[in-house]
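[job 4471] stage=fold_predict status=RUNNING
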Amino acid sequence: MQSHPDVERLENGDVSQRDHLLGEDLTGLLDPVADQLLNGSTVASRFLRAELELNTQLRMLSFGKPVRYMYNPLEYAWDTHRCYVEKYCREGQNVLFLGMNPGPFGMAQTGVPFGEVKAVRSWLKITGAVGRPAEEHPKRRILGLDCTQSEVSGARFWGFFQELCGETHNFFRHIKHFTTNEQIE
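[job 4471] inference complete, writing structure tokens
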């Protein structure tokens, strides 16, 4: 089944239609995957739904100088973020890591918390398309999973748990963690 074009744009990171979509009844417009996301009862679908709702409220904020560039990976890296949440956000996890200010070479590139690109691709095995924010800082371009720079904190975070746990399932059966949005001056 082919999804409605607006839902497809939403899933591909096009934020121009997202405000419109979140305020509308999407019944009948969704493909099975998008329908499960917005109407599902799994921990992952409830979490993603809450993120979309909070994201709508965040978009109402405005910032004056010196903030010029706003990076919201939940908008332009939705595909990889959703892959991460659906893969690793499960029932029964009893520890939650929260981060703030995603780094320019981590979640800003991948949509994954502490999302150092190499760890996201090789250890977490996250795939998907990463778009770009409406305006990019000339020194902080979004290259997505093709970014070659490393996010030190993410490399340490994931490296530690990879060494400690070996496989991702050993880590994620107890742990979940997520990060807030980033603003770059």
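[job 4471] summary: The beta strands are 69-71, 95-99, 175-179, 182-184.
[job 4471] exit 0
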